[in-house]
Amino acid sequence: MSGERHGGLDADALAYYADGDWYDAEYVHIGGDIPYYKRVAAESAGPILELACGTGRLTIPMAETTSHPITGLDLMPAMIARAERKRAALPRPWAERLRFLQGDMRHLRLGERFSSVVLAFNTLMHLTEDEDLAALFETVRVHLAPGGIFHLDLHTPNPTIMSDRDPAGRYDPQQMIDPRTKQRWEVSENNRYDPRTQINTMCFYYRQIDGRGQPVGTERQVVLRLRVIFPRELDRWISSSGFETVGDFDDLGRALPFSGRGGRRVLMLRAR
Question: Between the CA of residue 83 and those of 15, 16, 21, 90, 144, what are the distances in Å?
Answer without folding.
Answer: 18, 17, 10, 11, 24
